[in-house]
């Protein structure tokens, strides 16, 4: 669990790379510059940790590309103390970025193996989520709603209704929508039944899977 000067140097290069790709929020860039991404990947992949690429983790899943993590986080416009729900905990890297920005994080993962691994790992490196949940993200967490922000980190074939209804007024849902290719989509809740919708180009994610049961 080492974080060396070499890692820090590589991280600064990564921050430069995603800045050049258009990320401007300095708090998001600082978080990416601070979090030891190499620790979220199996040790054999150390050399890849600071390239701007998605990478395999356990259970056939991936840790999202740093640019994508930064892009989605920027769209959430997090303020310290905001209550944020993440769908797709995976390696916990995106959750760490949210925690670094001062969010209270509730994150759901449907793969038990990943849920267990990440539940142990995140606190070990000092990142404490409010709650990590083993369950189905399509349902969200009605008992914890409303959320100031919701981020979906898997490709959703459609926008699950419960996620929209669990947003606070003024809250933001960032969700990649589509089958093979996904359109990054932002919903802002303007009123009880009123949502604004914006699109931000194409991305590729592993699929948001429907519950097995
Ligand atoms: N945010 C993660 C990215 C993980 S990839 C990271 O930073 O590493 C997407 C994750 O979504 C996978 O771990 C996958 O198992 C999970 N997932 C897929 N469908 C889901 C569902 N219905 N509910 C919760 N998690 C789901």
Question: In summary, what is this structure?
Answer:
The protein is α/β, with parallel strands linked by helices and 213 residues long. Helices cover 29% and strands 25% of the residues.
Task: Give the helices and strands, then pairings.
Layout: H1 5-20, H2 26-34, E1 55-56, E2 62-63, H3 66-76, E3 83-87, H4 93-100, E4 104-109, H5 112-124, E5 131-134, E6 147-152, H6 161-165, E7 167-177, E8 182-189, E9 195-203
Parallel strand pairs: 3-4, 3-6, 4-5, 6-7
Antiparallel strand pairs: 1-2, 7-8, 8-9
Helix pairs in contact: 1-2
Bound molecules: S-adenosyl-L-homocysteine.
S-adenosyl-L-homocysteine binds next to strand 2, helix 4 and strand 4.
Overall description:
The chain has helices at 5-20, 26-34, 66-76, 93-100, 112-124, 161-165; strands at residues 55-56, 62-63, 83-87, 104-109, 131-134, 147-152, 167-177, 182-189, 195-203. It is of the alpha/beta class and 213 residues long. It has a single domain (5-203), classed as 3-Layer(aba) Sandwich (Rossmann fold), CATH 3.40.50.150. A hairpin with a 5-residue loop joins strand 8 and strand 9 (195-203). Helix 1 runs antiparallel to helix 2 (26-34).
CATH superfamily: Vaccinia Virus protein VP39
The tally of domains stands at: 1
Number of strands: 9
State which percent range the strand residues make up. 15-25%
Q: Main sheet?
A: 7 strands, mixed
> How are the strands ordered across the major sheet?
5-4-3-6-7-8-9
CATH class: Alpha Beta
* Global geometry: globular
Mean of residue pLDDT values: 95
| Helix vs. strand class | alpha/beta
Tell me the radius of gyration: 16 Å
Number of helices: 6
- Helix-strand sequence: HHEEHEHEHEEHEEE
CATH architecture type = 3-Layer(aba) Sandwich
Q: Which regions contain 5 or more consecutive residues with pLDDT less than 50?
A: none
The percent of residues in helical segments reads: 25-40%
Question: Which hetero ligands occur in this complex?
Answer: S-adenosyl-L-homocysteine
Per the CATH scheme, the topology name is Rossmann fold
